[in-house]
């Protein structure tokens, strides 16, 4: 797609053809043997590719989903796309038994100079068709930069997508030094941010735009849900309470999730994890470092892998924090590891 803000450019992973490392059945074997796997967890597929970019990718996804069905895997599966989804894939999904698929459509409304490969019209048409087939959908609204942050554009986006889905997940711009050097052409104010500070920042927003989004949504699209966290979007789709320790954080307060969802999360918020449950989960992920439980929080003193940390967040019923700053190699880890947002 050659999007100018894409991290994969930094690693020379795009634009280039996809590469198959494991057959779908082998991939499921690896997944199920991982100590981070849990039948109740969400599986995000294709975070470094787009399954609808090429026919080969689509065929792999079909084979993977078929294998999941054959093995009776119950996990919710999420894919994100900037590409058209044709009717044959929709028919395929509806032919499977027990598949639990949610499709995120990344529709940012950015101009062609920033997203050269995106066909917005076909993407919107795909969102419509997939939604009409009763496959859960989410509008992925990111990144927000000055070019898509006007009142007129925000209103147009909400008017369009709310016809087909009632959920949008919003995000600012995620940066590393390489992407910053490209995006500063389109957003000169990024020069104010030091490269050495980027690892501390989850994403960067045009000043005040979050309030504009939520004001327009609340006033004119009251049934549309706006989330800053993906786990909250999943909770809304599945009608379940928060499982990611987001409730009563600043992100929770900012979300437009509806009274019913907020009440459900509040009723669940008083549950906790015992010392024994915490020890079991720490042993399960092979964490041998120091920790303490303080003020209904698990505080980790030593290094932990990003995947291990996310596992703990999803498995325990208390927040998980760090004695010092968490350093992740994944730029998209964002708010999950406590990084802060910045407005400029």
Structural description of this entry:
There is one protein chain. The protein is an alpha/beta fold and 344 residues long. It folds into 2 domains: 221 residues, pyruvate-formate lyase- activating enzyme (Alpha-Beta Horseshoe), CATH 3.80.30.30; 69 residues, no CATH class. 35% of the residues lie in helices and 13% in strands. It contains 12 helices and 11 strands. The strands form 3 sheets. A 6-stranded parallel sheet has the order 1-2-3-4-5-7, with helices on both faces. α12 links the parallel β9 and β10. The longest helix has 16 residues. It is globular. The relative contact order is 0.10. The mean pLDDT is 91.
Task: Please summarize what this structure is.
The protein is an alpha/beta fold and 344 residues long. Helix content is 35%, strand content 13%.
Taken from the alpha-carbon principal axes, the silhouette is globular
Count of discrete alpha- or pi-helical segments spanning 4 or more residues: 12
CATH topology of the largest domain: pyruvate-formate lyase- activating enzyme
Arrangement of strands in the largest sheet? 1-2-3-4-5-7
Mean pLDDT: 91
CATH C-level class of the largest domain: Alpha Beta
Content-based structural category: alpha/beta
Number of strands: 11
Q: Which sequence of SSEs, written as H and E, runs from N to C?
A: HEHEHEHEHEHEHEHHHHEEHEE
Oligomer: single chain
Which CATH architecture of the largest domain is right? Answer: Alpha-Beta Horseshoe
| Helix share, percent | 25-40%
Q: What is the rounded distance between the termini?
A: 27 Å
Largest sheet: 6 strands, parallel
Radius of gyration over C-alpha positions, nearest whole angstrom: 20 Å
> What's the structural domain tally?
2
Question: Poorly predicted ranges (pLDDT <50, ≥5 residues)?
Answer: none
% residues in beta strands: 5-15%
